[in-house]
Write the structure tokens for this entry.
Amino acid sequence: MDRLADIWVCEMEQYREYDKFAKCGKCELKAWCRGCPAVAKGTNGDFYAADPQCWKEVE
Ligand code: SF4
């Protein structure tokens, strides 16, 4: 059985390519925020699409 900590640290690393995030990749808040990829996936079918809940305008 995998430990949750091992999954979080190792297996989830593939989802931490922050520059792939369409909007958050260009945002100065990406180190702290990055929106909710689950909502982006559920809304747009794309894990890396912009989170529709985001309030910030990013150029
Ligand atoms: S403020 Fe918006 S664009 Fe910036 S990191 Fe958060 S969700 Fe992404």
